[in-house]
Design goal:
single chain; mainly alpha
Protein backbone atom coordinates (compact mmCIF):
# COMPACT_ATOMS: atom_id res chain seq x y z
CA UNK A 1 0.00 0.00 0.00
CA UNK A 2 1.40 3.37 -0.97
CA UNK A 3 2.09 6.04 1.67
CA UNK A 4 -0.53 8.36 0.12
CA UNK A 5 -3.26 5.72 0.57
CA UNK A 6 -2.16 5.06 4.14
CA UNK A 7 -2.32 8.77 4.95
CA UNK A 8 -5.78 9.08 3.33
CA UNK A 9 -7.06 6.09 5.35
CA UNK A 10 -5.62 7.51 8.58
CA UNK A 11 -7.22 10.91 7.93
CA UNK A 12 -10.56 9.25 7.13
CA UNK A 13 -10.36 7.21 10.34
CA UNK A 14 -9.58 10.32 12.40
CA UNK A 15 -12.53 12.17 10.83
CA UNK A 16 -14.93 9.27 11.54
CA UNK A 17 -13.76 9.00 15.16
CA UNK A 18 -14.09 12.77 15.58
CA UNK A 19 -17.64 12.75 14.20
CA UNK A 20 -18.64 9.86 16.46
CA UNK A 21 -17.27 11.64 19.52
CA UNK A 22 -19.03 14.85 18.51
CA UNK A 23 -22.30 12.99 18.08
CA UNK A 24 -21.87 11.35 21.48
CA UNK A 25 -21.25 14.69 23.19
CA UNK A 26 -24.20 16.36 21.49
CA UNK A 27 -26.57 13.54 22.41
CA UNK A 28 -25.47 13.60 26.05
CA UNK A 29 -26.04 17.36 26.42
CA UNK A 30 -29.47 17.28 24.79
CA UNK A 31 -32.47 17.60 27.12
CA UNK A 32 -34.23 14.32 27.57
CA UNK A 33 -37.82 15.45 27.06
CA UNK A 34 -37.69 17.36 23.79
CA UNK A 35 -40.83 15.61 22.59
CA UNK A 36 -43.85 16.27 24.75
CA UNK A 37 -45.58 13.04 25.73
CA UNK A 38 -49.17 12.46 24.70
CA UNK A 39 -51.59 14.02 27.12
CA UNK A 40 -52.76 11.22 29.36
CA UNK A 41 -56.45 10.60 29.86
CA UNK A 42 -58.09 11.59 33.09
CA UNK A 43 -57.28 15.28 33.13
CA UNK A 44 -53.53 14.89 32.72
CA UNK A 45 -52.85 14.33 36.40
CA UNK A 46 -50.06 11.89 35.48
CA UNK A 47 -48.21 14.63 33.58
CA UNK A 48 -48.63 17.03 36.50
CA UNK A 49 -47.33 14.37 38.91
CA UNK A 50 -44.34 13.69 36.65
CA UNK A 51 -43.42 17.37 36.70
CA UNK A 52 -43.86 17.57 40.49
CA UNK A 53 -41.61 14.55 41.06
CA UNK A 54 -39.02 16.10 38.72
CA UNK A 55 -38.97 19.19 40.94
CA UNK A 56 -40.65 21.34 38.27
CA UNK A 57 -43.61 22.69 40.27
CA UNK A 58 -43.99 25.90 38.28
CA UNK A 59 -44.36 23.91 35.07
CA UNK A 60 -46.80 21.57 36.84
CA UNK A 61 -48.94 24.56 37.81
CA UNK A 62 -48.82 25.84 34.23
CA UNK A 63 -49.84 22.48 32.76
CA UNK A 64 -52.65 22.11 35.27
CA UNK A 65 -53.95 25.60 34.46
CA UNK A 66 -53.86 24.88 30.72
CA UNK A 67 -55.71 21.61 31.16
CA UNK A 68 -58.37 22.77 33.60
CA UNK A 69 -58.70 26.54 33.35
CA UNK A 70 -58.04 26.90 37.08
CA UNK A 71 -56.87 30.20 38.49
CA UNK A 72 -53.22 30.51 39.45
CA UNK A 73 -54.06 30.18 43.15
CA UNK A 74 -56.27 27.11 42.64
CA UNK A 75 -53.68 25.37 40.46
CA UNK A 76 -50.88 26.12 42.94
CA UNK A 77 -52.97 24.74 45.82
CA UNK A 78 -53.71 21.59 43.80
CA UNK A 79 -50.01 21.11 42.94
CA UNK A 80 -49.03 21.67 46.59
CA UNK A 81 -51.60 19.06 47.69
CA UNK A 82 -50.27 16.56 45.14
CA UNK A 83 -46.65 17.26 46.12
CA UNK A 84 -47.51 16.61 49.78
CA UNK A 85 -48.79 13.16 48.84
CA UNK A 86 -52.45 14.09 48.85
CA UNK A 87 -54.87 13.77 46.00
CA UNK A 88 -56.81 16.18 43.88
CA UNK A 89 -59.80 15.72 41.60
CA UNK A 90 -60.29 18.24 38.82
CA UNK A 91 -64.07 18.09 38.65
CA UNK A 92 -65.91 19.08 35.52
CA UNK A 93 -64.33 21.78 33.37
CA UNK A 94 -66.00 25.16 33.40
CA UNK A 95 -66.48 26.37 29.83
CA UNK A 96 -65.31 29.94 29.46
CA UNK A 97 -63.13 29.94 32.55
CA UNK A 98 -59.67 31.16 31.71
CA UNK A 99 -60.78 33.17 28.64
CA UNK A 100 -59.17 36.58 28.80
CA UNK A 101 -60.90 39.75 27.65
CA UNK A 102 -58.95 40.06 24.39
CA UNK A 103 -59.88 36.54 23.28
CA UNK A 104 -63.50 37.07 24.32
CA UNK A 105 -63.62 40.34 22.34
CA UNK A 106 -62.04 38.79 19.24
CA UNK A 107 -64.43 35.82 19.35
CA UNK A 108 -67.42 38.15 19.74
CA UNK A 109 -66.21 40.29 16.83
CA UNK A 110 -65.83 37.24 14.59
CA UNK A 111 -69.19 35.86 15.66
CA UNK A 112 -70.85 39.22 14.91
CA UNK A 113 -69.33 39.12 11.40
CA UNK A 114 -70.79 35.65 10.86
CA UNK A 115 -67.47 33.83 11.22
CA UNK A 116 -68.53 31.37 13.90
CA UNK A 117 -65.98 28.69 12.97
CA UNK A 118 -63.11 31.19 13.08
CA UNK A 119 -64.35 32.42 16.48
CA UNK A 120 -64.32 28.84 17.78
CA UNK A 121 -60.78 28.38 16.45
CA UNK A 122 -59.59 31.53 18.22
CA UNK A 123 -61.10 30.38 21.52
CA UNK A 124 -59.56 26.91 21.17
CA UNK A 125 -56.11 28.26 20.29
CA UNK A 126 -55.96 30.50 23.34
CA UNK A 127 -57.72 28.34 25.95
CA UNK A 128 -57.06 24.72 24.91
CA UNK A 129 -60.78 23.99 25.30
CA UNK A 130 -62.27 21.00 23.57
CA UNK A 131 -64.12 21.65 20.35
CA UNK A 132 -67.48 21.11 22.04
CA UNK A 133 -66.66 23.46 24.95
CA UNK A 134 -65.35 26.16 22.63
CA UNK A 135 -68.47 25.87 20.47
CA UNK A 136 -70.74 26.19 23.53
CA UNK A 137 -68.72 29.16 24.73
CA UNK A 138 -68.92 30.98 21.39
CA UNK A 139 -72.64 30.24 21.07
CA UNK A 140 -73.12 31.73 24.52
CA UNK A 141 -71.53 35.06 23.57
Amino acid sequence: MSPAVQIALAVALVVVVFLLLLLLVLRRDRPRDLVAPDRPAGGGQAEVLRLIHAGRRVEAVKVLREQTGLSLLEAKQAVDALAAGGSWSPGPPVPGKGVDDAVRAEAARLLHRGEKIQAIKVVREHTHMSLADAKRYVEGL
